[in-house]
Amino acid sequence: MSVFASTFAMFGSGRPWEQIRNSICYPNLPVKIAVTHAGISVGEDGPTHQACEDIAIMRAIPNMKVIAPADSVEAEKIVEYLADYYDSPVYLRLARMNTPVVFDSNYKFEFGKGIIAEQGRDVTVISTGVMLFKALEAHKLLASDGISAEIIHMPSIKPVDAKMILESAGKTRNVITIEEHSIIGGLGSAVCEVLAENLPARVKRIGMTDRFAESGEPEALFKKYGLTGNNIASEAKKLLNR
User: Fold this and answer.
1) Fold matches, 3-93 and 115-239
2) Domains of the chain: which residue ranges?
3) What b/e string do you get for 46-56 counting C-beta neighbours within 10 Å, with b at 16 or more?
């Protein structure tokens, strides 16, 4: 039997953290915690419901794996995969908002594996969750200015695909991370940990800085806090001194 528990990200990560740590992760039980309404795209529900710290606190617990799919197809395929996965607890992070569909029925998920959505040579942009769509927007904007951006989607945040990060960063030496989460402890931190120990590179982390957000339409909040294709492209140009 496969056990799934589901609620809002704020209530599935922060409130029961001690029980998750001691009663699920310590005995390494294969419980899947599938949360929705993660990040600032919760929108009008405001900062009390905008979980922007959940990846950090889940990633820190031994045995816990952390996943953030980009679209409905990827989410469905991951749930099917997890239904037959019994090796460890898993935190599955889902958003509230509707998203475009990128993946098709041939999609296959694997822990610790990223996906190269677009190949490039000048700058590496690594996203997770729904921020893949903002990264793809940035790819088009940068291409129009003659800048070749490699876009990596990282659904598996823990374990992260260190091999793919190092191969891409070794080629571009310029890395941007984009996440609908705090830049403290999330995808950006995971990428920086890999690079700091193996291959120093110029890095810009885009996400929520050390602050709470506010109520508002998701796209308006993305714009205010820099989670947009335009801002990714702008930061890429700064890294490249262009």
Assistant:
1) yes
2) 3-93, 115-239
3) eeebbbbbbbb
Q: Among 91-100, 144-153, 168-177, where is mean pLDDT lowest?
A: 91-100
Question: Which tens digits make up the pLDDT trace of 99-134?
Answer: 899 999 999 999 999 999 999 999 999 999 999 999
CB 150 within 8 Å of CB 121: yes
Report the alpha-carbon distance of residue 129 to residue 71 in Å, rounded: 8
**Torsion over CA of 178, 46, 77 and 135, rounded to 10 degrees?**
-20
Axis-axis angle for helices 132-144, 229-239 (nearest 10): 60
Tell me the pLDDT of the chain averaged across its residues.
96
- CATH number, span 115-239: 3.40.50.920
Q: Are 106 and 138 in contact (CB under 8 A)?
A: no
- What is the third-level CATH fold of 3-93? Rossmann fold (3.40.50)
What's the pLDDT at 225?
Answer: 97
